Amino acid sequence: MKRKHLLTAVFIAYHFMGHAQEAKPFNYFPLSLKDKQQIEQLISKMTVEEKAHQLASFYPNANKRLNIPHMQAGEALHGIVSPGTTSFPGAISLASSWDTTLVEKVSTVIAAEGRSLGIHQVYTPMLGVMREARWGRFEEGYSEDPFLISRIGVAFINGLQGRGVHRFDKTHVVATAKHFVADGEPLLGENGAAVEISLRSLHEIHLAPFRAAVEEAHVGAIMPAHHSLNGVPMHINTDMLVGVLRNEFGFDGLIVSDNNDMRWVQDKFHVTSSRYETIRKALTAGVTTELAWQQPWGKLRLYGPDLIAGVNSGAIPMKLLDNAVRKVLDYKFLMDLKDEENPLGNDMTFMEKGAGTKNDGADVFFSQINASTFNPRKGYLNILNDKQHDAVALEAARKSLILLKNQNNILPLNANNIKSIAVIGPNADTVRLGTYSTQQPKYFVTVRQGIEQLAGKGVKVMYEKGTDIQNPKLGQIEKAVAIAKQADVSVLVLGDDAKTVMENVDRDDIALPGEQEQLLEQVTALGKPVILVLIHGRPPGIEWAKEHVSAILDGWFLGQNTGTAVAEAIFGQLNPSGKLTVTYPRNVGQTPAYYNALTPGRPRELWHASAEPTYPFGYGLSYTQYKYADLHLSKSTMRDNETIYAEVTITNTGKMKGDEIAQMYIHDEVSSLTRPLKELKGFTRISLAPGESEKVRIPISKKSLEFWKDGKWITEAGDFTIMVGPNSTELSTVKLTLNK
């Protein structure tokens, strides 16, 4: 069966790299004249101390005297960090769905739950380009590819903030794109390490997702990165925060400091000689609010007593303070926070006893926030417990799960043909949500529970932990091997915990931590089928597993429905359709690893090793098969003002319904600057029944062919290779000529 319509992947076209001046500047604050006048009146009435309090993020910033409401921030990487909220797949897991519609649906739910809890701004999404597997924050990002990050990021921001008349309404929040900029490629994988990088790499790779976030989604806030960029700390980097972000991209929202980073400018980077100088330079660069979590009002807050004293002494211009306050008030008025349901009124002194001043006993940084921090609306539990929210989380888990190996089509298992299953591993029967997640989810289905629910009464399910990731104990592996001997098939659930991958926990190795590798090898040595399930937060070194286990399912951190999605895939109720958004290096010696490297000067050879990764970017298998045929262009030549299409027919030639993700890459054959071997410039996700075909059209425009040179985006006439296929290596090609 062949569909009659043509699927046009316009929503994923490469349109985010254009020049800011080509479009009419976006009006960030469509306020009435009355509101603008009232804001100016409030600024004129505030004391310097009252103004300073307006710049406190995740800290009391209401003003009872002037009836100025509080603006509450919160964490929401893959769900609001608060007890009882919906836990979605982690950022990189969700991106593995390559489904922008789903991503926006997920963040729409997150925003609704946040507003019900009294949250108005969230510190997400993370738009770093993930190139360094040793980095502890890897799981917080989306991909190693700037185009894919931009598509996922724009969708996530749109869901958080709302579109059109729904932008910043009572069910949406201000998104904060972070960390600006180039934090995903830190030296040695160390969080906050200095970044020295060319302007070309900045614009083509690291700035690209932020440009999309500003120009397309009009993101409401930006958070600078911890590090210094080419010698200048990001929190006072006027060239980046003003010259690029505001003047070139057209950003006009809040810039909130990263946690406690304002002090680092002087104390760590030693580029200022006083607090006054630091504050003046940060305000000049446009940093409007300060996040200093756990810090009471005092000397450890730069936008606190030091700001007040500096303004009063004349060392810091009042105009700089007023500009920052005005930006905060713009949002409070735009979001109608003065009308926000608030049982406590504007007296926010209760926060002094909440997460603004102390750690609430969390064992993971920012992974638990005291409920008293927030000011929920009446009926908020009805929103948190909405079954539709759980359904979206389950859909996300299902679409994000990746099948990396399926030797002899061992999966899906037929429960009628097996009598016993051994479920083994430290991640098989425990809550694994990843970092920046609630430690009190509404529920969590473990892989063991999921398998027990679907295996049926005729299948015996045995369980052993096998090893602890932290502090393995003697005899654990032996117990696991013993049940594996009794079973027809073993499911090993391995990966990371909250202490092996998280902010400020960087590694010098990417092997499975602890004794998991030994566990895997000893169970596999029995010669029985082994299904490896990965629940993790960074690209794992699984070269040995690829060669020896029967099947590999990869979920990253899949959220509250982890076990349901994994079990459905194991027993064939779900056909895995996710694809890798990053390259999986063989070992730490291959890091940093990314597919879109510049053309090498010489062939790369490694002594006694392959230069190829364990799994390439874009890779993912299915229980069915797809055939790509008749790749062609709607026109073989184009000019800068045209949009043409790469067209290909995809057929499901297997026996199971499935989703396929078609990917388009482009290579500039001859350029005045060395160009990458290939760059992702389009993709689309389609569903096909057995025997069904669909013609996919992916647009190619001027922006698909641009590169950055001499301070601007240009195209050059010549030939381009257009590549389309199921991943970054299995590609069909066709030639395109650009005429000037």
In words, what does this structure look like?
It is built from 20 helices and 26 strands. It is of the alpha/beta class. The strands form eight sheets. A six-stranded mixed sheet has the order 11-16-15-14-12-13, with helices on both faces. The protein has a five-stranded mixed sheet with strand order 18-26-25-20-21, with no helix packed on it. A hairpin with a 2-residue loop joins strand 7 (228-229) and strand 8.
Question: Brief overview, please?
Answer:
The chain has 740 residues and is an alpha/beta fold. Helices cover 27% and strands 18% of the residues.
Strand content: 15-25%
- Binned, the helix content reads 25-40%
Low-confidence stretches: 4-22, 343-372
Structural class: alpha/beta
Let me know the average pLDDT.
Answer: 91
Strand arrangement, major sheet:
11-16-15-14-12-13
Summarize the biggest pleated sheet: 6 strands, mixed
In DSSP terms, counting alpha (H) and pi (I) runs of 4 or more, how many helices?
Answer: 20
Number of strand elements: 26
Tell the overall outline.
globular
Radius of gyration from the CA trace? 26 Å
- Whole-Å distance between the termini? 41 Å
